[in-house]
Design a protein that fits this description.
Layout lengths: L10 E4 L15 H6 L1 H7 L3 E4 L3 E2 L11 E5 L6 H13 L3 E6 L9 H8 L11 E3 L10 E2 L7 E4 L2 E7 L14 H15 L5 E4 L23 E2 H7 L3 H11 L1 H4 L2 E4 L9 H5 L7 E3 L21 H15 L5 E3 L9 H4 L11 H13 L4 E5 L20 H12 L4 H11 L2 H4 L30 H5 L5 H13 L4 H6 L1 E5 L6 E7 L4 E7 L5 E4 L4 E7 L6 E2 L2 E4 L4 E6 L2
Parallel strand pairs: 1-2, 1-15, 2-5, 5-10, 7-11, 10-12, 12-13, 13-14, 14-15
Antiparallel strand pairs: 3-4, 6-9, 8-9, 16-17, 17-18, 18-23, 19-22, 20-23, 21-22
The chain binds 1-O-alpha-D-glucopyranosyl-D-fructose and calcium ion.
Length: 563
């Protein structure tokens, strides 16, 4: 496997709207991010992905772009963006923007023109089909946010257009070479500004299985999940390779694909040495227990499931490339509220448990990708009723739960467990009003736990979650261990032992053993040899004797083993 400039870094996702508000309007902005660059450096971050800051009506929080060449005034100006790239670069941090090109906004000039003249040039930029009231739609796919993927074309009651996401996110027609050229031109324009690269949104969706046809319905609404179509769509890699060739490869850019549903044999084509992306997110854990019925039917994830999914991802990528390891992002619940059993965060060992989960994920082979607030152990929030929820997908899921016969209170349980708002509450900087995120009214309420969980309180506490993450990033950056931490082979240790997640990282210079006692009780773990050094420990003690570790509840350690 070829070595790349970004392999040894630690990456960090910023959700700009909720990170830091510099001008008091309640919305995080680019000047806020610039103010926090020193913070990111302190944390040991080398790559930052910004969720979209392009001009947008924010129907899906910026994933609906109305001008790819402009910054939304709510986030700042192009000057701010350029300053951010420059200032980050001075601190050794590369800036990665979100590339949202499966769809644009219905307020984008292209779509506006398509509505004016659906038979003209811009009509070909989208998927527009003839349709009269009462006739069946071109196909029965369900949009990811609920309801059919077809909506009436504004101004034309005899036509509909396709949107796999929200109706304000019309899908771009990648089959049209002119659309592809426009997209590549835009990508290069940004790379010329000095961007390190892109996180590539929902990209697997750009290839549709054509011609449109129905799939067997999977719910009472008569619709079939758009995922079904992805299984039948052939040839996405042709588009992706063309894009890489026309853009990223010329710049040596870093690219991370948001790819679900890839076929296993295609992995090298995505992230191998000649792959179309640098890397992709590992969603092996994210998709555990997903249920076609929706959020309300999803079961909690057990430690055993989590461990097996991580090990499976390690196995399949070992000789191929790097995945990005995450426990959460802006679309998912907080990792500590999801992968730890209910009540663990609030329990007496909550801090240890959070560190264990973070450590186990961070030490896997691949690129660790933290999400803002993860480093201080931020947790899910809670909403009393659906009116308090911002997330468009949560509204769709709520409706689906009611349609399945659940009561509003039961439907809200699912929403509270999975709403994307969980990860989108403002960053908790300190214990002052609104957690120090804004001097105004935050666009989304701050999690009420901010007085207990905030950065200021953790900075000076050597035992805080934050200082634990700093130790992890420092170990990854330590020249004496970097080779092993970054490239060392992963080998599961005692994988059959319940509620123990342990693995070796074997490098040329040393062997590390990573151990996590994934439960609220102690556990005796036989050690496979003599311990040379305890490099990281989430607790004060390391009770090992006679080759056995008496691990305390949620104990986590990284050990350097005697050769
Ligand atoms: O998310 C895409 C997504 O969450 C999935 O629906 C995915 O496409 C599907 O599971 C494929 O099987 C991205 C962004 O992260 C999210 O915030 C946006 O809302 C969405 O795309 C639309 O741009
Ligand atoms: Ca602001």
């Amino acid at each position: 496997m070829e070595r790349k400039w970004w392999h040894g870094k630690t990456a960090y996702q910023i959700y700009p709207k909720s990170f830091c508000d510099a001008n008091g309007d309640g919305i995080g902005d680019l000047r806020g991010v610039i103010q926090k660059l020193d913070y990111l450096r302190e944390l040991g971050i080398g790559l930052v992905w910004l969720s979209p800051v392009y001009r947008s009506p924010l129907a899906d929080q910026g994933y609906d772009i109305s001008d790819y060449y402009g910054i939304d005034p709510r986030f700042g100006t192009m000057g701010d963006m350029e300053e951010l790239i420059r200032e980050a670069g001075r601190r050794g941090i590369g800036v990665v923007m979100d590339l949202v090109v499966n769809h644009c906004s219905d307020e984008h000039e292209w779509f506006q023109k398509a509505c004016q003249d659906p038979d003209g040039k811009y009509g070909q930029y989208f998927y527009i089909r003839k349709h009269r009231d009462g006739e069946p739609l071109p196909c029965n796919w369900r949009s990811y946010f609920g309801g059919p993927v077809w909506s009436p074309l504004p101004g034309h009651n005899d036509r509909v257009y396709l949107h796999l996401f929200h109706r304000k996110q019309p899908d771009l027609n990648w089959e049209n070479p002119e659309v592809r050229r426009e997209i590549y031109k835009m990508i290069n324009w940004w790379l010329d500004k000095g961007l390190a690269g892109f996180r590539i949104d929902a990209i697997i969706n750009i290839k549709k299985a054509l011609p449109f046809r129905d799939y067997p319905a999977d719910r009472d609404d008569g619709l079939a999940s758009a995922d079904k179509m992805l299984f039948h769509a052939k040839g996405v890699l042709d588009f992706l390779n063309e894009m890489a060739e026309e853009t990223f490869r010329k710049y040596g850019a870093f690219t991370v694909g948001e790819v679900f549903n890839e076929k296993p044999e295609e992995l090298p084509l995505f992230i191998g040495d000649k792959g179309c992306f640098s890397t992709m997110f590992d969603f092996g854990e994210t998709v555990l227990n997903q249920n076609p019925e929706g959020w309300h039917a999803q079961k909690p994830i057990t430690a055993e499931q989590y461990k097996k999914a991580c090990f499976e991802s390690q196995r399949k990528t070992q000789d191929t490339g790097f995945l990005c390891n995450i426990i959460e992002n802006h679309d998912e619940p907080r990792g500590v509220s999801r992968y730890l059993p209910e009540g663990a965060c609030a329990g007496p060992h909550g801090v240890a448990a959070k560190k264990m989960l973070g450590g186990l994920n961070f030490m896997l082979r691949g690129l660790p990708f933290l999400y803002q607030g993860q480093e201080i152990g931020m947790e899910n929030t809670h909403c009393g009723s659906i009116e308090e929820v911002d997330d468009v997908s949560a509204h769709g899921e709520y409706k689906a739960a009611l349609a399945a016969g659940l009561s509003p209170a039961e439907a809200m349980e699912g929403v509270n467990r999975f709403s994307r708002d969980n990860a989108r509450t403002p960053f908790q900087w300190d214990a002052s009003d609104n957690a120090g995120f804004t001097t105004g009214t935050p666009w989304l309420p701050v999690n009420p736990n901010y007085k207990q969980i905030n950065l200021a309180a953790q900075r000076n506490d050597p035992d805080s979650v934050w200082n634990f993450y700093r130790a992890l990033t420092a170990l990854r950056g330590n020249p004496a261990y970097q080779e092993t931490v970054v490239y060392g082979e992963t080998e599961p240790y005692l994988p059959e032992r319940e509620n123990l997640m342990a693995y070796f990282r074997r490098g040329a210079a040393q062997t590390l053993l990573v151990i996590g006692n994934f439960q609220d009780a102690g556990q005796e773990v036989p050690l496979p040899g003599a311990v040379k050094r305890v490099l990281i420990n989430n607790l004060k003690e390391f009770p090992a004797q006679g080759g056995v570790l008496k691990a305390a509840p949620w104990q986590f350690a990284v050990l350097e083993m005697e050769a």
